[in-house]
Amino acid sequence: MPEPAVEIRQLSKAYGPTQAVVDVELEAFSGQVTAVLGPNGAGKTTTLECLVGLRRPDGGTVRALGLDPQRDAGRLRPRIGVMLQDGGLPNGARAGQVLRHVASLYAEPRPVEDLVERLGLHDFWHTSVRVLSGGQRQRLALAIALVGRPELVLLDEPSAGLDPQSRRVVWDLVSELRDEGVAVLLTTHLMDEAEALADAVVVVDHGTVIARGTVAELTRSTGLVRLTVPDGLEAAELSAALGAPVRSTGPGCFVVDADASPELLAAITAACAAQGAQITSLDVGRRTLEDVFLDLTGRDLR
Amino acid sequence: MSAPAPPLRRVLAQSGFEARALLGRSEQVLLALVLPALALVALSATDAVELGLGEGRRVDVVAPGVIALAVLATAFTSQAILTAFDRRAGVLRLLATTPLGPGGLLGGTVGGVLVVQLLQVLVLGGIALVLGWSPALAGLGWALLAIALATASFTALALLLAGTLRAEAVLGLANLVFVLLAAGGAVLIPAERLPGPVAALATLLPSGALGEALRTALSTGALPGRELAVLAVWAVLASLAARRWFRWF
Asked: Considering the entire predicted model, what is its pTM?
């Protein structure tokens, strides 16, 4: 195993009485995309901020590219590219001016024109940051994170506020970085983003890691059945009839958490027939990352 | 392989960026240049406001005060507002993760203020010279020293304010302080023309000390010892306080 680009051991950080992160263990490798997945307030951003040296951990060790973000900050900063959740773009400046300025802080920055082209920054190159849309800000922030040719890229919710086209552009760029051997660590609460991009997923909740593995590993467990029955079926009834857990995911939408055997499907249709309830869709599939995630983190809104 | 630009180039780049930001908005140009220039012309050319000039021409008293006012506007008011809003937008956090780092940010902040002040001194000094100002060249060094110490004090106080209060509060407070000091802080109006207790207080503040120091140095060429001492004490205390309480993020 090569030396990890990110190595976090037993990281703890509290804000006053609130324990934001407890004993987090995390690794990320060059040439891989590692997704830290978790609901709002799970400790994703705190972990990332400790990694880039913006916060000092209360306990544990944090290493980025083998360096201590606090002690070796001067040596680490030129080698990482960071996209923060709040963007951090100066409102008074024009978009192009900001990107050119950050580029000037590096000896051999990535050609600005290249990023302009890839991320479609032309349209708002001369526009004041103040009036940029959320998606435009995200694209500019990503360009800023990449302009220094970083070896380790840290992205806090990179696709927040992006339309589907822009998100695709961002994903392609992240995949390309991986292929170039860059270590990418991103936080997200978008399942499809983690599924599409991540070589490794770390699920965090309430400041601790609750699961980790590849997407395939995390979703490998038994399949499930999704069905839509607009009228005349209750989750509790169906569950009783099947002897398997059933949850309602919306009006008339149900998920049966059990191995999708022919016997189970027969029992489901029989139960609906007994109720005279029309099935409008029935889908047998493997668990998605979202299913795993919801099982792990619970279903309450945060 | 990623490598940073040399440290000096980074700080200079940030200074230029900060200077543009300081002058990037019309209300800041108004505060930094237009207002002082208007004050210079109006107070030098008319006697609508009695300044108690004694002998000598009005412009010789007005010009140093206007320069002090411009220094106060940029190093304190504009800088406090700029940093407060940048801090709220997360700009300081983001730049702290680039090769610039917190050290380069501080260097760039001071550098940006100095660039704008150089511009202010050139423009306002130029106008004053056209109006007939003849500064005492012997006092030029003392004047520059006073400006440097005052800049350190004002910038540190600006960062202290910006680093501890909400951006809107900083906006209000920084403007209020500017107006109060401009009116009664021995900046434009010599301390001897202010009521006794006000004058005593004003000359203990960095604004009044700067105004008096510039008038003394540039009118007579003499060493404004007391004022420089006051400015030095402020520079040290304000820097220590900013170091203790300012948070980049």
From this structure: 0.82
